[in-house]
Amino acid sequence: MPLRWRGLMGMSCSTHSTAAYQSRWLLLAFTTIWLAAVNAMTQARIAELRQETVAMFYHGFDNYMRVAFPEDELRPVTCIPLTRDSRNPRNVELNDVLGNYSLTLIDSLSTLAILASAPPDRAATGAKALQDFQNGVASLVLQYGDGTSGSSGKGLRGRGFDVDSKVQVFETVIRGVGGLLSAHLFAAGELPITGYEPRRAKGPGKLKLQKGEIPGIAWPNGFIYNGQLLRLALDLAQRLLPAFYTATGMPYPRVNLRHGIPFYTNSPLNKDAGSGENIRDDAPEITETCSAGAGSLVLEFTVLSRLTDDPRFEQLAKRAFWAVWNRRSSIGLIGAGVDAENGQWIGPYAGIGAGTDSFFEYALKTHILLSGHDQPNLTIPFKEPHQSWLDPNTIYSPLTEEQNSPEAFLAAWQQAHAAVKRHLYSGIHHPHYVNVHLATGSPQAYWIDSLGAYYPGLLALAGEVEEAIETNLLYTALWTRYRALPERWSVRDGHVEGGLGWWPGRPEFIESNYHLYRATRDPWYLHVGEMVLEDIKRRCWTPCGWSGLQDVRTGEMSDRMESFFLGETAKYLYLLLDPEHPLNSLDAAYVFTTEGHPLIIPKEKTPPVVKRKRSASKELQPHTGEGIRNTCPVPPPPVPFTISATAARPDIFHAASLIGLHLIPNHHAIEAAPAKKSGKTANPKSQLEIVTNYTYYPWTLPQYLMPVNGTCDRLPMKHTFSIEFPVNTPLPATQGGQANFIVLGPQGLVRLNEGILVKSLSGLKLGMVYESPSPYAGTDGPLTESWRVWNIANMAMGRDEQIFIPRDIIGEMTDPSFTRVRDSVMLDIVLQLENQFDTNSSAPGSVEEFYETSSDSDQEMFDDSSTDLVFEEQISSSGIAAEYRTMLSSLLQHVTSALRDPAATLLPTQPEMPQTYPFTILPAIASTGVGAAPIIDVPDAPDPSQGPKTESLIWSNIYFAGEACGTKLPDDAAKIHDVIIMRRGGCTFSEKLSNIPSFTPTARSLKLVILISGSEEEDDRREEEGRGRGSGFSLFRPLLDKVQVTPSGLVRHHQICLVMVGGGDEVEELFKKTRSLGLRRRYHIESQGLVVGNILVV
């Protein structure tokens, strides 16, 4: 502890009383609080930044209304409206979003409603924003009508959104439907606006309100609001319904708001239609959508259904979500692209950014939105009597109660986050997320995109604050370097990826900082917001609005003000700088959509329900891996004499180092510590310092918020090395024709579902990475350190992928960097089973059927995932590789054909085929203690995966001794039997061995004692407890605590090897069907004295 702290706190207990000691601690606490209050961003500065944000919004909004309304967007550089590209219908970047329905106004209404709760100021921001909100609603209704079927339902531009525009379903839902719904909730008083109290308009009230209608509310501008926005949202959503007529439940990506989907000729909706009217080009319509586009409709459609009592939308959106989720890979990842017609993934990539982003977001937020609300009663069919009625739900099976529950969406989020943390999260240099292969988890691309900047904010909502803080640091450093976020940045190469350097005004980064500030109250995030605001003002301002950047490196403008700039970016920046806003203290289950629109289900809008006991989910798997967080953590306490816990983090420099920020010249003027009060006037220039590079960030952070004695941890880099095997003879050609596997590279690597099979070490190169703590475990518990192969033949490996190397390929290799080590504890017992059929009778099952049933089911029960290690993925009982199973199946087809009809042969002149016998494997564990004998050293049994054999294994005489307690076994049990089978229980293990008579070792005498432990019930219980049937954890080493003796009490000269298997009665029956048996030893690979955890010797 520094000496100055000792003097302040009075650490000498010999001269100070306990009371004085405590008083100094109180003084320290008071001083810390005082420093925080004095040096944190002042309320005046926050108010100043808030007003600048309001001015930024209005500079864009006023110019849009003046120049571009009622068109969709504004070109701020050329100062003209931006409309659809009618000359190029394939310009989906523009036409997917712009639907000719005043998009920017719709997207901006909820921001105006939020600004209407601004604190009192000279500009009367709140009153002005409320007036602009109400005038904006009136202007929108004037253009598109009030959503009714009468004359008032037709506006200047049309009746509702009856426009000939092919738009993207996802963008139309989140911007159009979501914007209208959020604005309706503010207008109806369901979401708070300070000082706004909806009052019913005077006049006789209706006895029955129509669909989407609420009691009229009189506004000062003379407009009577009675649900026009809600009805317009319903009109827009109904125009999207044709897109949901698919075979998968996922909507088509596009729909024409007037004509539907005549261009999707395979849709069930068009099965009786004529040939493609309204199709304007010859190219087939793209059916590819993305996980985010298909699965991120639940918030908007659920609120629409609850507000209108129309269940169609909620059910469609939930079904689409589950259709995406149920297609996740075996390791829990979802892909970016998916075909809406056939449900196949398009491309192998899985990440958190473009293509998947809002799917994760809606999993968690749907749980929040539905929490506290009962499920609607869906047992009564709902239909309205008019010809235009569409309900795609009728072509699907109804959703289950589980699929409708908020708990199911929470479980989906927890599983999705666990998979992301397991396979995408990289802690090297500084925590970030990579893009991996959907099926294997192997890294595919090392870039981050600006869309992925939302994820820290989502983590903050989920209570994963530490992960949120550390990953958000990377985006903050990246923004500091480029004064915006490039669309894609290469973590590996340290520069903008592939020329994708634009920033269209995206909100994701400021959104995450808003949520992190709400979770931590750390002023560091206020300075991040200050940086974002200042950079936007300096780089994006035009006389006519705010432009995106075409290239963040050069500052070139894009001449487009995206609707989300006013709808999201300005909104989140304002809410960050208005901590007392009523939304920030609203105690209700409300959420922001992926377009930044607040949504809530009003309690009184919850329809009647029928409560049922929810059945167990079949769509969801038990959550494993990362621990489940059910509560939000308290904000991290600041380090003493500091204000910002984030600025004092010991890893804050790591993110800057990964971005290369410390190498970039810093030309910003940074505010230094306030001058101490003295009689002299402070020199204004002394308050500003020019820092030569970015030693900290954001660039707006004052130096006095940095800890004086701040420390930095070492960069979290992992030790790696490579092994390259010499080139030997070429890989022999595969016999028996082509196998059903993929050979990768000249080394003959075979890609399996579980990993990679190595068919030759010649010229093979392995990249090793040091793991501590190790993710692997041995029979004695978790390993403290190990190696993992992260790269093989220049191909990256997934975190859970394994490498399978046949033992005969490795041989007796003893190189210090690559050594085959035999396991002294675990082994496999190979059983050759009798064929259970009569060749002269018509048996109902075949040899192939018996083998598949026997080996698969038995292995499911008794398989052990451990060699010397326990792995998460298991190798199937019938073989370790897909090609072996294929070859085995081909062989069995020929054998079965001959055995089913003895009179038939493959060729008339062919001799009779020899009888073959199938194998199965039982994992076994050796005994321990003073009486334990080493595992008997015999030749390994053949590989069971190579199929049935004619030749017997080394042992064929088996004696069944029961529990073997109380009396001596017959002399012949040891003299003429190779193996004795005992059941566990009744007496100690040592007593069981002492009942075996003494014998002289001969070729015919006893070689091995096998102890059978457990039962089917115990295996079921282990499976329920999550330990797995037949897993390594179901076996324990039998303890022989006494020296082995004969029945007469003499020390046994020839020790007997005892091993134990599990399975109980079923395994004993399996032994009784055994023709012969043998042992197959297990091996693992070590390098420099440490286990290589993901290499399996097979």
Automatic annotation (TrEMBL):
Cofactor field: Ca(2+)
Catalytic-site annotation from UniProt: 171 (proton donor), 357, 487 (proton donor), 508
Name of the molecule in the record: alpha-1,2-Mannosidase
Domain of life of the native organism: Eukaryota
Organism: Hyaloscypha hepaticicola
Keywords, ordered alphabetically: Calcium, Endoplasmic reticulum, Glycoprotein, Glycosidase, Hydrolase, Metal-binding
Recorded family membership: Belongs to the glycosyl hydrolase 47 family.
Binding, Ca(2+): 594
A GO biological-process term: ERAD pathway
EC number from the UniProt entry: 3.2.1.-
Compartments in which it is found: Endoplasmic reticulum
A GO CC term assigned to this protein in UniProt: membrane
Lineage: Eukaryota, Fungi, Dikarya, Ascomycota, Pezizomycotina
Short name of any one Pfam family annotated for the protein: Glyco_hydro_47
GO MF annotations, alphabetized: calcium ion binding; mannosyl-oligosaccharide 1,2-alpha-mannosidase activity
Membrane-crossing residue ranges in chain numbering: none
